[in-house]
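STRUCTURE:
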């Protein structure tokens, strides 16, 4: 019956004045402040009727208060439901309707529109939280008690967070992560990455994503260490702060942009001990260029929304191009289409089993059953192989997922939006190698015979109002027909081969 917050709290420094977050020279939050503010926030949530298992949906900009709100939800036994700040009204509307939260916290500037959406789904409370320490949530929490008895939970059964990930049908599905899922992953990463007293994390990742929230934040709180906390990634600011940090976590795009700066050199990394990359494939060019420039090897790992982290290269035992062996307590295997387990270096579908794997999909038992084998292994949908030493190598994605700038883009969702545009007959979305984003979202479109004229710019402009910017194609190409196999399935591999050099 151990709440994740209680486990984290046991790891707090003995000195309550120890720094937890430094957002700038005049904005420092201690571990003592963490206790007090999360108690205030948890007390407010309780007054708003939030009980164990209730969802608290959050779409706010990155701020220290947003971290405290997440931890307060854990304390209150609530289910934290973060949403990408790029989500448009239609995307938020679906999630609010599906998740049925008790409280929705949004950006102050979007309050009017979000309040109307929430009213459609009978969400009882809508509050705001801004980057400038403002918003009705902060105002309402002021003066609340700074004592709160953390709600006990069943760590294996009770859900700590729901993260929505779009499905191949275009309907987002909520991955339910329990307190045990998050705690086990945090402990494993702390061990494998050899966190130690005095480590300082330079935190530049978004916190609506598992990478920034669970991998970076949870692990550093477990370590009882300090974070240099940036509201967003800025190359010059990161280079300025690196000499004060020891750990940095990023997506490949961050490393590409750092290497593009002449200011980024060995001197900037003089105090560092660990660079981690994930959320998208790291190009060999970036890996080798970083090693040559800094003398450091970027540690690659492999995870997904449904499992947080599955594997990681061990420090000192990195293999370029591999995502490393499974984390402690995690099992990985590769299977063929019939579910038979394959041998070393045979390519198939990667499956994982362990305490990190999600409980299931919110209100979607059918999807949950279809994604698990009878023996408990989760079918990731990623293609890969495992070598003789147990290192996992990702070869591709069976579900044609596109990862652009570290964010998941599911083709079907974008294809459905494009196909609604007047003049479009059908479309296919593929990911192509991109020097900055890892993969560039690319649309291949068939025009409707005798339909109104449709152009690349018209399609891009039409999508910008409906989809988050990272889902909008960077290029649109027109073809007479999409290549198909004998079963009628679009052969996206042929399209990828044809347009592979688009962004090079």
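SEQUENCE:
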């Amino acid at each position: 019956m151990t709440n994740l917050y209680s486990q984290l709290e046991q790891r707090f420094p003995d000195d309550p004045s120890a720094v937890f977050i430094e957002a700038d020279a005049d904005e420092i939050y201690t571990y003592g402040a963490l206790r007090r503010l999360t108690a205030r926030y948890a007390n407010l949530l309780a007054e708003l009727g939030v009980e164990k298992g209730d969802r608290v949906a959050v779409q706010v900009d990155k701020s220290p208060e947003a971290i405290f709100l997440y931890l307060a939800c854990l304390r209150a036994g609530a289910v934290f439901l973060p949403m990408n700040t790029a989500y448009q009204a239609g995307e938020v509307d679906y999630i609010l309707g599906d998740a049925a939260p008790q409280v929705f916290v949004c950006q102050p500037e979007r309050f009017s529109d979000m309040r109307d959406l929430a009213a459609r789904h009978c969400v009882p409370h809508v509050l705001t939280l801004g980057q400038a320490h403002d918003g009705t949530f902060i105002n309402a929490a002021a003066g609340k008690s700074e004592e709160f008895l953390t709600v006990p939970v069943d760590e294996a059964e009770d859900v700590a967070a729901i993260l929505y990930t779009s499905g191949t049908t275009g309907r987002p599905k909520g991955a339910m992560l329990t307190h045990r899922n998050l705690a086990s992953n945090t402990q494993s990463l702390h061990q494998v990455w050899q966190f130690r007293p005095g480590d300082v994390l330079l935190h530049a990742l978004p916190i609506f994503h598992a990478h920034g929230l669970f991998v970076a934040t949870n692990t550093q709180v477990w370590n009882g260490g300090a974070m240099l906390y940036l509201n967003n990634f800025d190359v010059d600011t990161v280079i300025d702060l690196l000499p004060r940090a020891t750990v940095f976590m990023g997506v490949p795009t961050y490393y590409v942009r750092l290497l593009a700066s002449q200011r980024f050199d060995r001197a900037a990394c003089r105090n560092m001990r660990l660079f981690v990359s994930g959320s998208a494939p790291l190009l060999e060019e970036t890996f080798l260029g970083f090693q040559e420039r800094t003398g450091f090897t970027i540690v690659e790992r492999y995870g997904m929304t449904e499992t947080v982290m599955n594997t990681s290269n061990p420090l000192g035992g990195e293999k370029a191009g591999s995502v490393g062996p499974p984390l402690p307590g995690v099992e990985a295997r590769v299977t063929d289409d019939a579910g038979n387990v394959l041998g070393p270096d045979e390519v198939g579908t990667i499956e994982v089993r362990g305490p990190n794997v999600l409980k299931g999909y919110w209100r979607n038992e059918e999807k949950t059953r279809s994604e698990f084998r009878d023996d408990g292994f989760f079918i990731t949908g990623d293609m890969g192989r495992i070598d003789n030493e147990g290192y996992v190598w990702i070869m591709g994605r069976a579900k044609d997922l596109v990862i652009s700038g570290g964010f998941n883009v599911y083709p079907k969702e974008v294809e459905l939006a494009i196909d609604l545009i007047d003049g479009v007959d059908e479309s296919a979305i593929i990911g192509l190698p991109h020097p900055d984003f890892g993969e560039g979202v690319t649309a291949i479109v068939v025009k409707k015979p005798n339909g109104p004229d449709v152009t690349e710019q018209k399609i891009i402009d039409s999508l910008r109002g409906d989809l988050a910017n990272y889902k909008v194609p960077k290029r649109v190409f027109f073809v007479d027909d999409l290549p198909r196999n004998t079963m009628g399935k679009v052969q996206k591999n042929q399209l990828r081969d044809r347009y592979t050099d688009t962004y090079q």
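REMARK: The longest strand covers residues 424-434.
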